[in-house]
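Can't paste images in this forum, so I'm doing it all in text. The chain is below; anyone willing to post the predicted C-alpha cells underneath?
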Amino acid sequence: VRLLRTVAEAINPHAVLITETNVPALENLTYFGNRNEAHAIYNFSLPPLLIDALIQGRSKHLRAWLMSMPPAPYGCAYFNFTASHDGIGLRPTEGLLSSEDIDQFIETLRGFGAEVSMRTDGTGRESPYEVNISLFDALKGTVRGEDEFQVERFLCSQIVMLGLEGIPAVYIHSLLATPNDHDQVRATGRKRSINRHRWSLERLEEELADPASDSARVLAALQRVLRIRRRQPAFHPDATQYTLQLGESLFGVWRQSVRREQSIFAVHNLTRTKRSLDLSKLNLLATDEWFDLIDGARLTSLQDELELSPYQCVWLTNYEARSVVRLPLRLRRRQCAGARRCPVPPRRRDSSSAGRASPAGSRGSSRQRARAPRQRPRWRAPRDGDRS
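Text version of the structure:
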C-alpha cells in the first residue's frame, strides 16, 4: 500500500488512496500505516454492527466497538458506509459479536430474503463470509419478525452513519430504498446480484413521482438530512467524537467542531417503542440555546426528558450554521492560487479568530486578502514534509 501511495503521489500529488479490506476491525486499522499508507479505509465493521443494533434494539455491541476505535490519524479518515454492491461482511465482526449473535443475525436476515455466501479456510472448513441482501430489506423488521417500521428503521441507520467521525458514503440503492432483486440472482447465478438491481428510467421515475412510495419517501428524507449535515462544522472529519452512555435502547455520540464553536449531540432510538432521553445526562451548557437540527424543535429546559418516537433521531446543537461547510471530493486540497502550499486547518484554534486570519503561506497582497471570501479551510491529507 505504501508503494502504491508513493507511485500515485508521484503521478498526481492530489491522489487519495482508499483501501477496501473486508477483514477484522483491528487488522483494518493497520492500513493507515504511519500516515503513509491509506488516506481512508472502508469502515467494514459499521454495517453489520449497525444492523445488529437495529434488529436487536440494543446499542451494546455498536457502542463497545465505537468506544474502542481510535480517532483516525491526522490527514486520514474513516470511510463510513452501510451498504455497497457487495454483501454485509461478517469477518469484520470477529471478536465483536459472539457466534450466537452471528447465528441470530444470519437467521433474522434470512427471514427477510437474504442469501449467505460462504468461505473456506485453510483447514477446509466452511464459515459464513457475508450476508447478501439489500440494506432496505435487511431492516424490514427485528429479531421478532417484520413490522411497520421499515422506513423509519432504515432512515435511522443512515442518520447514525451520517453523524459518525469520518466521510459518509451512501449507496445508490440506499438512496432509492431498493428491495431485494431475487430475479437478478436467478438470472446471473450470483448471490451478490440481490443488491445490484438495475432500475429502468421509466420505472424509477414512476416510483419517485409517487410521494407515498418507499423510494420517494426515503430519497426526500435523505436529501433533507444531507443538506442539513453539510452545513455543520461539528461533522467535519477532524471534529472530536465521544461515545455517549445512554443505556441499551439509545445510541449517541457527541461531536465538537475543530474550532469548538459547535457541539452536536446525535442521539438515536434503536427500538420500535417510544423512549425517553434524560437531557440532564448530556453536557448541554446552560449558557447556550439548544435545538434539534432535524426537526427544528428548541429545548425549553435542560432538565426535562425528551420523548423519542420509534427510531427517531435528534441532532441537538448550540450553533446555527449560516453557510455550507464545503468539503472537497478529494482529501487533499488543490494548491491555492498564488500560494506555495495550501494551509492545513489546525487541530485546535480559538474560535474568536475563526475567519479572520489570512491563510498561512499566502502570497497575495493585504488588499487581495481582505477581498477574499471568508470560508472554513478545507480538509486535506498532509504530505510528508509539511510542518505540524
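Residues 327-378 have pLDDT under 50 and may be disordered. Residues 206 and 325 are 34 Å apart (CA to CA).
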